[in-house]
Design brief:
about 25% strand, 4-stranded mixed sheet, binds uridine-diphosphate-N-acetylglucosamine, alpha/beta
């Protein structure tokens, strides 16, 4: 297993380009199953999760031609209607093929995704929503077997919890259902807006995009289109936070400020000077240590759970004390134990981390436990004195394109060693 060796202490300074969004690219790729002709998707990030989704599509018989950051995908005809365990176990987002496959073919078999390091992550709301559209769902031999031989039917469904993947799966299923589906308490994340725009370009009829109430008028067929995936707001936030933690100064290109407001507000509270343009964000700490900032994660437009770990790492070297509460996933503060091994002073009280900032962390061997926790360890290591060795970085390759190259451009001392 590869490791990162990071020599800390450098202020991160410079300009980098942000990649396309992983969490938007994945559902968009799944949604190509809805269309009867080829689509060309550009600005796809080079990430293991995207490669896994393309492999999953190929295993279903979809024709995939990918090069650099774009892919031509033709799902005119599927030859298999089963997402196998081998792929689903490496990426939970594989569940996103369930809705589109069922809507288009009246049948879908998807290996039941298990838990993961950050929590149990059930899919009960996805399944209840599909049942409300008339699907018959059975769980058999570790597989979700969904059937709707006479097609899905429009329904009025209220999600009892805000779920990003659930909203995406049900929105895709409803696009080809008979009649109108209303989804209440829908997630409003920018990635859902991006998926809806892609689907509308393919011929779907969706209203209320970006709100908590989606109204989808089913159509009988959809066609392929050309689409550019939005920038990755979590990658953007990660580099901004890394710059804040190291008293640095960065400019991030090919990104957007309007999808990151809660994060930018919190960064401004640290004392960072932030400027934004149509497709860039600049942050300058003017050489100062950040001030500690408290936060609570919640569904969009509130502070994203996917930025919690990075802010926890920044708070570890900030001036003052912060309280960081995680309300989305039950197990997502585990990286704090690794930060404490680097000299952080973090105490856990239920789902809240109480972080007393220290002037400097000290490099240590640490272990990455999930994608965003790994990013937090890289930030901590950049801000620390001495050398940090981060083990199990395969997690980070799922979500950050060319992470070591980008940190190197910003003056970070990071290298990958094969394990
Ligand atoms: C997506 C993102 C992930 C992000 C998360 C929350 C992708 C590929 N991943 O994950 O990076 O951290 O949103 O912003 O886009 N839940 C249920 N029942 C369900 C579905 C979800 O109880 O049927 C719960 C989950 O356990 C969790 C909460 O709802 O506590 C939110 O999960 P959800 O929004 O569904 O996350 P994902 O779509 O898996």
């Amino acid at each position: 297993m590869d490791k990162f060796i990071i020599q800390g202490g450098a202020r991160l300074e410079g300009e980098i380009r942000i990649s396309g969004s992983k969490n938007s690219g994945l559902p968009i790729l799944a949604a190509t199953i809805l269309a009867e002709g080829p689509s060309v998707i550009s600005n796809l990030p080079h990430l293991n999760d995207i490669t896994t989704m393309l492999a999953l599509l190929r295993s279903l018989g979809v024709k995939v031609n990918s090069e650099k950051s774009s892919a031509e995908i033709d799902a005119s005809r599927l030859t298999e209607l089963e997402a196998p365990y081998a792929l689903v176990k490496t990426m939970r987002a594989s569940i996103l093929v369930l809705g589109p496959m069922l809507a288009r073919y009246g049948e879908a078999n998807v290996s039941f995704p298990g838990g993961c390091a950050i929590g149990s992550r059930p899919v009960d709301i996805h399944l209840r929503g599909l049942e409300a559209m008339g699907a018959k769902i059975e769980v058999d031999g570790g597989y979700i077997r969904a059937t709707a031989p006479r097609g899905l039917k429009g329904t009025h469904f209220t999600m009892d919890k805000v779920t990003v993947g659930g909203t995406e799966n049900l929105m895709m299923a409803a696009a080809l259902a008979q009649g109108t589906t209303v989804l209440e308490n829908a997630a409003r994340e920018p990635e859902i807006v991006d998926l809806a725009r892609f689907m509308i370009a393919m011929g779907a009829k969706i209203e209320g995009v970006g709100s908590g109430r989606l109204e989808i008028n089913g159509v009988s067929r959809m066609q392929g289109c050309q689409y550019t995936v939005m920038p990755d707001r979590i990658e953007t936030g990660t580099y901004l936070t890394a710059a804040a933690a190291t008293a640095g100064k960065v400019k991030l290109l090919a990104t957007r400020a309007d999808i990151l407001e809660a994060v930018l507000d919190k960064l401004a509270e640290t004392g960072a000077h932030i400027e934004t343009g149509e497709d860039w964000i600049a942050l300058d700490m003017k050489g100062d240590r950040p001030r500690a900032v408290s936060l609570t994660t919640a569904p969009y437009p509130a502070f994203p759970t996917d930025m919690q770990a990075q802010f926890t790492a920044m708070n570890a070297v900030a001036m003052g004390e912060a309280r960081v509460s995680e309300t989305i996933f039950e197990n997502r503060l585990i990286q704090t134990h690794e930060l404490n091994r680097m000299g952080a002073q973090i105490r856990l009280d239920g789902n809240t981390a109480i972080i007393k900032g220290v002037p400097q962390l000290k490099g240590a061997p640490v272990m990455a436990s999930d994608l965003r926790a790994s990013a937090s360890l890289v930030i901590a290591a950049m801000a620390a004195r001495g050398q940090t060795v981060i083990d199990r970085i395969y997690h980070i390759d799922r979500g950050y394109e060319s992470i070591e190259e980008k940190f190197k451009v910003l003056g970070g001392h990071i290298r990958r060693v094969p394990g």
